[in-house]
Amino acid sequence: MSSENGRPAEPAVVRWQHSSGGLAYCLGRLVVPPGSEQPVIVLSEVAGNPDAVGLVSDFAGAATVAAALFGVDPTSVRWLAHHGDFSSYDAAGAPETLTEVQLRSDGSRLHSDLTDQHLLSATETETLSRSLGLEPVRAVLATLDLPS
What are the residues facing 24 on neighbouring strands? Predict the structure, then answer.
């Protein structure tokens, strides 16, 4: 999953068939914080993903694929949606945000809707991002050869 010091595992491009019917992708990163048994998966919306297939409107679909990519039980993970100026071509200077997303399982599928999402405050976002050791999204995307 992650390295010994709690740094993120290798980032991955998470590609899925969005519930609205289009193909979607985001940046996925897995971190197991030091001293914690609960892994954290951060899914970052990126500007190259079409607005019609946005991350938060089908978070469960993205999470299903991310959990398989990282080899984790999706119900044991703390899930975060990550947005910032890297999420849209017209969001220059937008602050980074983290949204905690609760997922439910019916035994065969994951489910989530907007009522399962809690936007963290700016202070919580900054503190959590720093403690997870997240590298800037654009720098990570450059290593994956994806549009930022």
Answer: 16
Q: Give residue for tokens 């914080």.
A: 33
Predicted model pTM: 0.89
Dig out the tokens for 31 from the structure.
Answer: 């971190």
Hey, is 98 helix, strand or coil? strand
Q: How many helices (H) and strands (E) does the chain have?
A: 3, 8
Q: How close are the terminal C-alpha atoms of the chain, in Å?
A: 25
Residue 62's SS3 state is helix
- Best CA proximity match to 19, nearest among 68, 73, 56: 56
What is the reported pLDDT for 148?
54
Q: CB within 8 A of 145, min separation 6: which ones?
A: none
Per-residue model confidence as pLDDT tens digits over 34-89: 787 789 999 999 998 888 899 999 999 999 999 999 999 999 999 999 999 999 87
